[in-house]
Amino acid sequence: xxxESKYFLLIIxxxxxxxxxxxQNSTPVITDVKQENDGxxxxxxxxxxxxxxxxxxxxxxxxxxxxxxxxGDVPRGTFVFTDSYDLFKTxxxxxxxxxxxxxxxxxxxxxAVVGASYNSTSSAAKRTxxxxxxxxx
Length: 137
Prior knowledge:
alpha+beta; 5-stranded antiparallel beta sheet; 3-stranded antiparallel beta sheet; 2 helices; 8 strands
């Protein structure tokens, strides 16, 4: 009976430890956020293991304390996202990004928040054309 309880504790310990390791490997790590020449922002990340991950969701916040908004999804195996969603219409010049790894609706991993400055390169014509397109949506 003594040996059975030792093995039981050993098995439980290994199971718990392995769960912690999987959770740590499933956390996305944002490796780069930079502005591209076309005025978009490019977010890159890496992850230790994609086991159990279906897709990623990308979130953006304007400024240093703004609310995060969902700006896009990418499938498993994709580690880059190009943010062009209304960048030229924002008043902020600093964005914060976060990446969630998901299995269905369950969050498997959540990256740390990474911020980057944005230099608006939009022209008045671009703003006007964007506003005209928005009227017909």
